[in-house]
């Protein structure tokens, strides 16, 4: 009977995978029950798949899943959750920036009765000022926009009890962001803090484009706030227009020159056009989300599995059949 599952997405992590295994195994062997490590190879183009096969061949506690292409970290996490059999499931990175020792602390909190345990970064080793600043702004914007009581500075390094893991899998929406959806579930939750070390090998695969995509996937599907902005801007423009006409009328009545109507025309038109374009862009984002949901495609497609039962789910459908 598997008691603990560790879900580890890996994209082009050939330098980190073996290091993670050698470091994590002695730590996890201190646990009071059987465990499994589920590596999800998210369509890597390097030697990640070969190393994963080797680890699975020598240790049956290591499970491997190779996706048919790169579906993204959130889909890889969902795939790992769908295959995890543990009573407690810990999602963590392969580069050891999520220390296995911290996972043991999370498990202790789970034993105290918490169904979800978030890990908060106190310090980030050797990260650029830009990365720290954007992360700081992102977490606070996400919390404000969604209205959820999101714990600040907490990524996807977290523990989900069996009830919470099954609840995540039962959600039907295509857009996924574990850090937001786990809070939305409403189970008893807590936070532990840790110092995030630097990567043991390789480079971060999170480009600026991927970070922006992650930000969109967190805010647009989980918040109506952007849709209300054009209305607020329209009201503000109307009030400013009325105020401007009053001022112009007063100045005209007093015989004071103000540069004529043309002095106001271009900035007013530019501002109005900008707000209309922003309104259209925001609507298009939500229409795109509806379009993606309507296609109802799977979140992931499995190419190969290692050390997993034949009955394991082969794709990430939206019907919750993999829960």
Explain this structure to me?
The protein is an alpha/beta fold and 323 residues long. It has two domains: 2-223 and 296-306, Alpha-Beta Complex (Spore Coat Polysaccharide Biosynthesis Protein SpsA, Chain A); 225-295. Helices cover 48% and strands 18% of the residues. It is built from ten helices and eight strands. It has helices spanning 17-28, 48-58, 73-83, 100-111, 129-146, 162-170, 178-184, 208-219, 225-253, 262-295; strands at residues 2-10, 34-41, 62-67, 88-91, 116-124, 154-161, 189-196, 302-306. Strands 7-5-6-4-1-2-3-8 form an eight-stranded mixed beta sheet, with helices on both faces. Strand 2 (34-41), helix 2 (48-58) and strand 3 (62-67) form a beta-alpha-beta unit. Helix 9 runs antiparallel to helix 10. The longest helix has 34 residues, at 262-295. It is elongated, with a radius of gyration of 25 Å. It starts with a strand and ends in a 17-residue tail after the last strand.
């Amino acid at each position: 009977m598997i008691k603990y599952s560790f879900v580890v997405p890996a994209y082009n992590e050939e330098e980190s995978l073996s290091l993670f295994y050698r470091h994590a195994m002695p730590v996890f062997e201190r646990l009071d029950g059987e465990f499994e490590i589920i590596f999800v190879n998210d369509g890597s183009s390097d030697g990640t798949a070969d190393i994963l096969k080797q680890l699975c061949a020598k240790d049956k506690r290591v499970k491997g899943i190779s996706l048919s292409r790169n579906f993204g970290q959130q889909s890889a996490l969902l795939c790992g959750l769908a295959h995890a059999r543990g009573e407690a499931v810990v999602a963590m990175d392969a580069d050891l920036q999520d220390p296995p020792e911290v996972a043991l602390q999370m498990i202790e909190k789970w034993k105290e009765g918490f169904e979800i345990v978030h890990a908060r970064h106190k310090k980030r080793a050797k990260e650029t000022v830009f990365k720290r600043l954007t992360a700081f702004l992102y977490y606070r914007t996400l919390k404000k926009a969604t209205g959820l009581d999101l714990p600040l500075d907490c990524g996807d390094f977290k523990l989900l009890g069996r009830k919470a893991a099954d609840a995540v899998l039962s959600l039907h929406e295509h857009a996924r962001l574990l850090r937001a959806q786990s809070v939305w579930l409403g189970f008893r939750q807590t936070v532990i803090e840790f110092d995030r070390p630097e990567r043991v090998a390789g480079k971060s695969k999170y480009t600026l484009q991927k970070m922006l995509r992650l930000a969109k996937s967190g805010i647009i599907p989980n918040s109506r706030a952007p849709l209300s902005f054009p209305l607020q801007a329209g009201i503000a423009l109307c009030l400013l227009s009325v105020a401007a006409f009053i001022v112009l009328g007063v100045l005209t009545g007093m015989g004071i020159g103000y540069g004529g109507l043309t002095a106001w025309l271009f900035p007013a038109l530019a501002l109005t056009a900008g707000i209309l374009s922003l309104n259209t862009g925001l609507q298009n984002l939500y229409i795109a989300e509806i379009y993606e949901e309507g296609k109802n495609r799977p979140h992931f497609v499995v190419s190969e599995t290692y050390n997993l039962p034949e009955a394991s789910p082969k794709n990430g459908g939206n019907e919750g059949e993999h829960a």
